[in-house]
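Re: your question about BRCT domain-containing protein

S., sorry for the slow reply, the queue was backed up all week. Below is exactly what I fed in.
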Amino acid sequence: MGDSSTVFGGCTFTFVPGKELTETAVSELSQLIVKSGGEVLDRKRDGTLPLAQITHIISNTIDFPEYTETKALLIPVVRTKWISASLAKGKQAQLRPYTPDPRMIFSDVVVTAADIPETDKETIIGAVTAMGGMDSVAVNKLTTHICALSLDHEKCQLALSKGLKCKIVLPHWFDDCFRLGKKIDEAPYLLPDPEILQAHPDKDVQVPSSQHLQGATSARPDYLPASADSITGARPVLTVFKDIKVMLSSDLAIRDRLRSIVHDLIQEGGGELTDDIETCDWFVCQYRDGPDYVRASHLGKTVGSLSWLYYIITMNEWTSPLLRLLHYPVPRDGIPGFKDKRITVSNYGGEARIYLENLITAAGAIFTKTMKADNTHLVTARDNSEKCDAARDWNINMINHLWIEESYARCEMQSVTNDRYTCFPARTNLGEVIGQTPLNEARVAALFYPGGPSNSAPISIRKRRIVELAEDNSYADGPAEGVSIGRQAHKDFDVMKDTDEDFAVKSTEVFGVPAKRRTSAQQISTPSRTRHVRSGKENETPSTVSSSVRSAKDKAISRLSEIAPDIALYEKEKKRSAKDGNGHWGGKRALDQVEKESNLKRNASSPSRAAEPDDELTSEKRPAKKARPTLPQVELRVVLTGFKRWVNDKHKEDADRVGSMQLSSVELERDLTNDFVQKKLRDMGIAVVPDGQAVDYLVAPQIVRTVKFLRNLSKGATVVSSEWIEDCLDSKKAVDPADYLLKDVESEKKFELKLTTSTERARKNAGKLLAGIPIYCTANIKNGTDSYKAIAEANGAIFMTYAARSGTTIRPTNPEDDVDGPEPVYLLSTAQAAETKLWKRFEEMARKGNMEPRVVASDWLLDVAMRQELFWDEKYLVTNFFNDKGW
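Result:
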């Protein structure tokens, strides 16, 4: 082990603090670095990183403004764990396992192989290390995964006997992760009872929550979401806008009231709203076109969509608009190849479904809620559903969401025959990895704001060179496409210095990057799927770097050398004095000059052009299209439940729907709720939003125990009578909803509650009435589990389905810690024979976990959600409840 005082000798660090790296942690780590021979630099006065002086960046995320430039300069970005690992070894640890880049999907994995064939073992370990992981010869405390076919191997027995936290998985898990290029949940692959080998393929898989889609389901949201720091009360001061100038494009078409709100938020946070594209820092627009968009992109401004701006406001933290596809402006004409394509979705739920619908539309295709024979593609999270069966029968392309995401990210339609897009792991819903695909900046630049030295300002050349170099320094292909590893400190190769400290030109030496040799594909016999073998050594030194890596280094040096004159010109122009009011060269002056010279050349080369008749003037004039009336700004957001306006009332129907086709009462109700009523109300500034979104009012004819009613009551929505909707439609204007608060004395007596009291409690509970309480539900319960899951999770409960093959999911606790006795755990059930068989096993599981089992009728959950009060009565026990009902 080396001398710890010189571990970081010759290295200069800087930190990227944030929510994942606090200022306290930065201070402690900085002291460790200095004691170990390193140097730590703070950010510059303008808040940017001192890239010209540093050799390493310590960050637990790649989401910071200078990340693209660090890839261009091959400056390594590593997590804080790299510091402790280096100090523990007495020398600098490898960089690859500690990159924060999410595309290195195994960066937290330490794997050891057990009873699998030797060739498969080499393949798995090689691929894991290539994608950020490490291998371990023996099982130890650092081991996270054991790859095995059974528990008989001594490594598995050792892990079990010592109670290690590592997971024992089938090699199938690695195979599916390699094929997808995403790290999926290990649960279905865990020994001794892996679900993928036991469960029937047609058995339902729980739809996971979408962790990467917060604030990114739409490029242009309808409303400004609430702050992440405060569910109720005033929004906290936004520090993210400090000294930032924001420009809102005219193509956003936002109304004066919303613009005023955004203006106030930015100004209160120390920022400024501007209309000058030259001086703004952030440019927010809807489409990837127009002179302002192109100019902002060339000037290196941060360009994002309205959704991105709202996300910034919500999270109060900067994030790159390129990390989430719909945080960047959309192409006005979509992606080539998607026009007239009809695409539908299956097996995705919640935000994931909304996100895919908007992404498909942004790509230029037609999204259909139902599937017919004229559909061209089915995007599905599993290959098991009625739509999937129909797609096979009708020969419709069936792919996962990675196809539409990567087509949109790369600005071109990807082949549906790629194995990644047709991979559907047996017991996995791919909704768990949706939203992780970033935009390809180089492709966007090439297609939407191209430029060259002959027609661009020096700063646009600099921006383009940075993007190109970052692309060159990333992997060209493979599961971790786009990942840049970085370099170690090697001053011998830092041959070029420029006067601009913001962009010092460096050449680099690459360490730890394996040679890209092609090897024959090897097979893992158990999963029977092809694997790709990584060749080369993980810890190659400069003397053993392959010729391909040296070639890449030489190319980088050459490209950086070409940039130097452009940077010098940029610096010279930046320092020009603004004599005679002329100011800096560039911007509008440069564009005017270019356009003037272009017009002179065109007129000179075509002298007869002016005499030619104008085709548009001489042709027959077409009638002008009637402009669509603009909709009023949304003032109120409502959810309707149990609304029956025209059912069995022919006169109202004829008065409001002249010429419409006749429908049955059931069809009429459904049609009005989803279409006609919504359009009429929207014209009044009232938006009927889907269940699950933020609402102001819950509209119902009476107190009803529907999913919509209980979910939105749990959010604290004001409940108003459906007479309000009636009067709005009759008067053709929005009337005050405060005069229509729902009064239902009969239902209040029936359910033993006071609606106003329930609403007040819901606002205080803030969706956390059942926070931390585990609620199980039998898989075959009447009305299905989805409704109860929605209600339970709306109140913060931990909801799980309990079936015949469910294992133990309650973690045992120490009885001595339960001062007030064991906590209750609930199982929603009926008295059906198939469900009563589960009671005994559930009760045993609960008691082993030192919890009190309560097998209850679903009415307990409904009444708790309705009253917004956690209470208990033994009448809800199934043995009492259904006996009282005469079952």
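Residues 547-574 form the longest helix (28 residues). The first strand starts at residue 12 and ends at 15.

Happy to talk it through on Thursday.
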